[in-house]
Specification:
Arc Repressor Mutant, subunit A; 2 domains; two-stranded antiparallel ribbon; elongated
């Protein structure tokens, strides 16, 4: 049902089957159908009104940071603005996180960030696939964790789904593996040398480079997020 709503098969304002009809259509108990409807409601996908039943809400109401909703949104997103919005949020958080990490990272933090970078380097020898994305995500989340700030650490959980989704797609389009790795190395080296200003600038440039790459691909008609999300 989540996919049907996010994909647009059930457009905003459309009425949905009631619990009884849904249970019969899906071959489940009425209790299970009720729980499914409550789940959709908690995600902001539908609203349920007495005597009027359930109807689909507009996208502005959806909890897009829920991993299930975001995965479906990624699969059916067709415009670059969706992904640029994710990068804009990262630009608000990650340069400052890199700056704090450069001030506070201990040996264990540096080891984790360095290990993630090493994994990216190993994956860059071939086609950047799932291994690259896992390592890239570990690199960025390890930096946030190295800030020592409990609020930022909680944001790893809160924005983790968005971060993973954006990396999964933009990693296919970013600079060549060699160029992308150098941008990541610049961030790590600034943190390792405890240079906060340099770390902030390096992370900012890394993300801006991704923004520009996406814009260029969009202008050239080469941005195909649905195809890449399926890979």
């Amino acid at each position: 049902m989540i996919e049907a709503i996010v994909s647009g098969r059930h457009a905003p304002g459309a009425s949905l089957p009631n619990e009884i009809d849904l249970a019969q259509a899906r071959g489940v108990s009425r209790t299970a159908a009720r729980e499914a409807m409550q789940r959709l409601q908690s995600l902001g996908l539908i609203e349920v009104r007495r005597r009027k039943g359930a109807s689909v809400l507009p996208r502005s109401n959806w909890n897009l940071l829920d991993p299930t909703v975001l995965d479906a949104a990624i699969a059916y997103a067709t415009d670059v603005d969706f992904f640029q919005s994710l990068i804009e949020v990262r630009l608000l958080i990650e340069p400052r996180a890199a700056e704090l990490a450069a001030q506070r990272a201990n040996d264990r933090d540096l080891e984790r960030i360095g290990a993630a970078l090493a994994s990216m380097e190993a994956e860059a020898e071939g086609t950047r696939g799932p291994g690259w994305r896992v390592a890239d995500l570990a690199f960025h989340t390890s930096i946030i964790d190295a800030t020592g700030n409990w609020v930022l650490r909680q944001l790893i959980v809160t924005i983790g789904a968005a971060l993973a989704a954006e990396i999964r797609v933009t990693g296919q389009y970013a600079a060549s593996p060699k160029e992308s790795l150098q941008l990541h190395r610049n961030v790590f080296e600034a943190i390792r040398r405890h240079q906060p200003t340099e770390a902030h600038a390096a992370m900012t440039w890394l993300l801006i480079s991704t923004q520009r790459e996406l814009d260029a691909l969009n202008r050239d008609g080469k941005f195909r997020p649905r195809q890449q999300a399926a890979n």
